[in-house]
Structure formats: C-alpha cells, structure tokens
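Slide 14.
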Amino acid sequence: MTRRLESARRAVAAIGFALFAVAPAAAEPAPEPDGYRLSDYRAAVPATLRGANAIDTPQAFALWRDKAAVFIDVLPRPPKPAGLPPDAVWRDKPRFDIPGSVWLPETGYGELSPAAFGYFERGLAQATAKDKRRALVFYCLADCWMSWNAAKRALALGYSNVSWFSRGTDGWAAAGHLLEPREPAPRND
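Slide 15: predicted structure.
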C-alpha cells in the first residue's frame, strides 16, 4: 500500500473519530419493538435484536479480521439538495466504511418500496452467493435504527446467521480501525 493511500486512510479514520465525538449519545438503550422502526432513525437503539447477535466493536473487528462474515452497510445516500438548478453539478458525499463491505443504501428504512426491497434481497443473495447460512453483519452509524431494521429484515428473509453492529462506522473509526471509500452495490433494477 502506498504511503499516500495509508495517510488518506488514517485521515479518514481520524475524521470518523471526530464524527463519533458529536454523534448523539444514548443514555439508555431503547426497548426492542415488535416491528420495524418507521421514523426518527437517529436515536437511541435497543441493546438487542431477537434472532440476531448484537455485537460490539471488538467482536465486529474479529469477524472482519477473520473474514468470517459479510459486512453490509445500509446508510442512505445523501439526498440531492432541493431547488438545485438543473445545470448545477451535484456530487454525492463520499461514503467511507468498513473495508470490504457491501453498501446497500436506502435499505434500512422501516418501510421499503418494492424496488428497494428487491435491491436488498438481490444484494444479500449476491453477497452471500445465495447461502442464507452465511454470516452477515449489518451496520450504518452509531445510534441508527436503519441497520437494526435491515438486520431484522434479513432474518425475515430467512438468513440465519445475522449480527447487528450498532456502533457502525462511528465505533469502528473510534477504535482506530481504518475506513475506505465505498460505492453502492449496483441496483440492476
């Protein structure tokens, strides 16, 4: 790895740590609901998800290091600003996440359109080579219900080895682990 790339990765990890420092702090975990969270996605999350393993940063790192799971990022893409002139250049904000992850944006909402649900389903099938026993780790940011929703949805689809990493990239960067730029998985709608 070149020094320039390593330097960039360390800078990204430092930025992630700074973002973690201003992320909402949860005093107590929220109770685990029966259904999906439908709004207020950046709020205190439960400590558990029935049927899944709720993992912390050291556990997530061990799974990543051992290549024992597929990591799935569900953070949405930033929206294009409203009222942007038609001739204005718009560039998405880059997403930096756990190395080797699959990014399936817009799939952590409580309700998904048929297109978003199909994208999620196809993305998981491709990431696991259609093996529903393959270990999956879902994440986004700290105190974000979207990864909880996505992990719950994967369980409903029959995936049997699901983990939920509630600290997401914020916890990963705060522990000094590197992040890398990521593009979303192709939609193929």
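Speaker note: Residues 37 and 86 are 35 Å apart (CA to CA).
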